[in-house]
Amino acid sequence: MVEGDGRLVPATDDELMEVEDFLEDDKTEMHDVADSGQTVGHISDEGASSEKTQLESTEGLLKLENSEADAGKLNARPEEIIPSSAPILNDNDINQSGTTVECPKPLEKTIENVSSTSAIPTSSSSKPDFSKLNGEICLDKLSIRELHEVFKATFGRETTVKDKQWLKRRIAMGLTNSCDVSTTTFTIKDNKLVTKGEEECNKNVDGSFTQDPEVGATDVNSKGSPASHGSQMEDHQTASGKKLRSHSLELDSGSEHLHIEQGAAKRIRKPTRRYIEELSEVESKDYSQRLITSPKNAVPGQTSPKSSVRPVRNVPSEGRIVVTRLDSLGGSGVQVPYVSRVRRSRPRKNVMALMKFNPSSMGMAAKLVKKALGVHNSQTDDNKRDKVLKKRSSAEQIQQPFFSEVEKDRQRSVMGRFERGENLGLTQADSSGDNSDDNVVTVPTAKGGMRRKHHRAWTLVEVMKLVEGVSKCGAGRWSEIKRLAFSSYSYRTSVDLKDKWRNLLKASFAQTPPDDGLNSRKPTSMPIPESILLQVRELAEMNAQVPTSISSTKPIMGSRNLHETRSGYL
DNA sequence: ATTAGGG
DNA sequence: CCCTAAT
């Protein structure tokens, strides 16, 4: 890395690792992607007709995204050109993927299904009716607006896409935690995608629970998994404007499942399960905003006016495009590879302690800064990886008015964030795939403090996973549940699960005020579907967790009368 | 390290 | 969510 004034700035260990990851990736996994891209051919041929509808929709999507994307957006995101040629087909598992993955969808039928069912007027209630027959959710009958709500609930973010097909697919994928959603009828039951008439495509859709936890989702992305092929491809495609986009997903999933099925030995690093989320991340609009707003997150007073977010394209002889970004590091522009710079592991406690108790002494901080800039080249391997972050944190610590806030509070708002690997805006976008330790927006408060830490709204999928987990392991075994159902969600500690369950319990036994017509629109992030609350209640009773009343009323009942059930006393 | 409960 | 206490 070369600094603006010409000095050489060594990359941190972390960054080096990242780059290595990337390179290794290119070597090992790129083929898969490329191959997938080819084998898609089969599928789209076979499902040509139904594919067409999808193409139309995705085309619309492309237009939409492109229109609302300013020039900067397209460039401002890391990308690599994936060599569209050079597939190496010597692995026969790949060949198989072409044939086994095929999920020939009966076209006329499915298409008809969609159009006819979606025509049916939704129930007159203002909210989407999730509580179809025990836990069954029929997306086909939801309006766009309702789909939007479900989408938000499912993925925890808004969407502007108005394409029903697309929404349904995404939601189905989310709810089912699978990408095997190639069907055109979207009914989810018990976390499984119900295909009307066809059982073929949804063999393994229910994910984590049925399959061996060790093999399945266990630790796919906890390390620096590069993972996001899907999004990378999409990025590229979006940027270049053409090509169909809908398939990277299905194909990727196809090969993933394949690999899982036939021996995990083949590929050490499987694509993250989380890529579903990442796909949505790409289409999410705040993506670009985060990038654009980022400059103001830099160190106050040291922000170099023009540097922060100007992406620079380097075109090495390889032909592969590597995007670097100009980063204001310590006031001087430093070009760094556009990879994640989030810390991987929590800082060692003693380090934090040192900084904590020397807020005013420049010594430590200065040293760190120097180190970060490579002035003092000798360093313990152990320390290297945290350089950048530490430097930053020191800067911030220095600015602290010296225990201005309540000790506990400060500990929570400052230390807490660091210990969690949040870097206060240094990470604008992490496309390297392991967004596990995500950037969590911290909202500055009027009185200077940064409040509202990392809040990750619980999505419907997560809640469903939690419920299912409790049903399998029982309430209280949260570490178990976490390992089984939340292995792919690195956030969400067992404590979080416990808390959420507590909340669910509360919610499930709380009466639903008949709707305050006023503000029932979107502000409240997704009222938990009755179907889920029902499950919660059942489980709660089975575990004698019931608050203090009703115990003989509704252990087992059909599914219909949910309202009567809890309408009673509380 | 995991749980439970309070804030 | 965060923290503390008790296992």
Number of strands: 8
| Helix/strand order | HHHHHHEHHEEHHHHEEEHHHHHEEHHHHH
What is the straight-line distance between the termini?
A: 64 Å
Unreliable parts:
1-75, 77-135, 195-267, 269-439, 550-570
Fraction of helical residues: 40-55%
Radius of gyration: 25 Å
Based on Cα principal axes, name the global outline.
Answer: globular
Major beta-sheet overview: 3 strands, antiparallel
H/I helix tally: 22
List the domain count as a whole number: 3
In order across it, which strands form the biggest sheet?
Answer: 1-2-3
Which helices and strands appear, and what pairs or packs with what?
Layout: H1 13-28, H2 30-46, H3 48-67, H4 71-75, H5 92-100, H6 107-119, E1 136-138, H7 144-155, H8 164-176, E2 187-189, E3 192-194, H9 229-240, H10 247-261, H11 275-283, H12 286-293, E4 311-314, E5 322-329, E6 332-337, H13 349-357, H14 362-372, H15 381-384, H16 387-399, H17 407-419, E7 443-444, E8 450-451, H18 460-473, H19 478-485, H20 494-509, H21 530-542, H22 562-567
Helix pairs in contact: 2-5, 2-10, 5-10, 7-8, 9-11, 14-16, 18-19, 18-21, 19-20, 20-21
The structure holds a DNA duplex (7 and 7 nucleotides).
Describe this structure in words.
The chain is mainly alpha-helical. The protein has 3 domains: 13-288, no CATH class; 340-452, no CATH class; 460-567, Serum Albumin, Chain A, Domain 1. It has helices at residues 13-28, 30-46, 48-67, 71-75, 92-100, 107-119, 144-155, 164-176, 229-240, 247-261, 275-283, 286-293, 349-357, 362-372, 381-384, 387-399, 407-419, 460-473, 478-485, 494-509, 530-542, 562-567; strands at 136-138, 187-189, 192-194, 311-314, 322-329, 332-337, 443-444, 450-451. The strands form 3 sheets. It has a 3-stranded antiparallel β-sheet, with helices on one face. The chain has a 3-stranded antiparallel β-sheet with strand order 4-5-6, with no helix packed on it. Strand 5 (322-329) and strand 6 (332-337) form a beta hairpin. Helix 14 (362-372) runs antiparallel to helix 16. It starts with 12 loop residues before the first helix and ends with a helix. Mean pLDDT is 48; it is low at 1-75, 77-135, 195-267, 269-439 and 550-570. The protein binds a DNA duplex (7 and 7 nucleotides) through helix 17 and helix 20. Residues 247-260, 561-570 have a biased composition (Basic and acidic residues). Residues 219-231 have a biased composition (Polar residues). It comes from Quercus suber (Cork oak).
